[in-house]
Design a protein that fits this description.
Length: about 280
């Protein structure tokens, strides 16, 4: 394990081999989000996407809670601002969420305790979610007269029945992750204090896979929820044709035919980026 680096006061990272572990580190506020975090994490994601030595990312929170959402002191200050000023912080949040989806590397959330408000959006923007069984999620915006942001309604509407999305958003009640696991929103459940370990194991497994293919898969998964069938079939055709022309594809097929474990080549910066056009 490499020594942790500090990007800004509440954002820390360290390496576990080819896995980058990112920690939202502000336990006094249960890791509340700030504009500085939005900017810092976005920069980190963009750098990781171009770093061929990083194959996967795990995101977690310090202490016993994943993320409590927006800092209410910061949110209160926005009530007296002009609308254009209020949009600045929201746009930074949304820029970070977009960067998470654009990052070609798999991103896995490790949740202890729970996720609230924009912390739920942060977890949903990850490719997979590992959570301790006693954790919960809460979109309590409505309780303070606000509405969800960070892509929460988009991610949830693509994954859960409308009635449950309405319950989450209209009541602000805590929903246990066991219920969400049974509905497929959570990938793995663990004992308390084991979420990070399990997320790391999952990330290290993905890190051994074909980086270029996984980058293309991320794009296909995102587009598949909304594209008409004809458009998605075209994107799948482009991705498959491109994949056949890569060293990854050649090694994967050869390994299968030879009944051995594939030894995928290290990713280049070009492989890690989404390539659905010419190989």
């Amino acid at each position: 394990m490499s020594a942790p680096s500090m990007i800004e006061s509440s954002l820390r990272s360290h390496r576990e081999g080819s896995v980058l572990v990112v920690v939202n580190h502000d336990p006094e506020t249960r890791n509340a989000l700030t504009p500085a975090f939005y900017t810092g994490f976005r920069k980190l994601l963009e750098a990781a996407g171009n770093d061929s030595s990083i194959a996967a990312i795990v995101l977690t929170g310090a202490g016993d809670f994943f993320c409590s959402g927006g800092n209410l002191t910061v949110l209160k200050a926005r009530t007296t601002m002009k609308e254009s000023q209020r949009r600045e912080g929201i746009d930074k949040l949304h820029g970070m969420i977009a960067a998470m989806r654009a990052c070609p590397k798999p991103v896995i959330a490790a949740i202890e305790g729970g996720a609230a408000g924009a912390g739920v959006s942060l977890a949903l923007a990850c490719d997979m979610i590992v959570a301790a069984r006693d954790a919960y999620v809460s979109l309590a915006y409505v309780r303070i007269g606000l509405t969800p942001d960070g892509g929460a309604t988009a991610f949830l509407a693509r994954s859960l029945p409308r009635q449950l999305v309405s319950e989450l958003c209209l009541t602000g009640d805590r929903i246990g992750v066991q219920r969400l696991y049974e509905l497929g929103l959570i990938n793995r459940l663990t004992d308390a204090n084991d979420a990070l370990t399990t997320a790391l194991e999952l990330a290290q497994r993905l890190a051994k896979g074909p980086a270029g293919a996984m980058a293309r898969i991320k794009r296909l998964v995102d587009s598949g929820a909304g594209n008409p069938l004809a458009e998605q079939l075209e994107l799948e055709a482009q991705s498959m044709a491109a994949s056949f022309g890569t060293a990854e594809g050649a090694e994967g097929i050869a390994a299968f035919l030879e009944k051995r474990k594939a030894n995928f080549p290290p990713a280049s910066n070009g492989d890690a980026k989404d390539q659905t056009g010419d190989a």
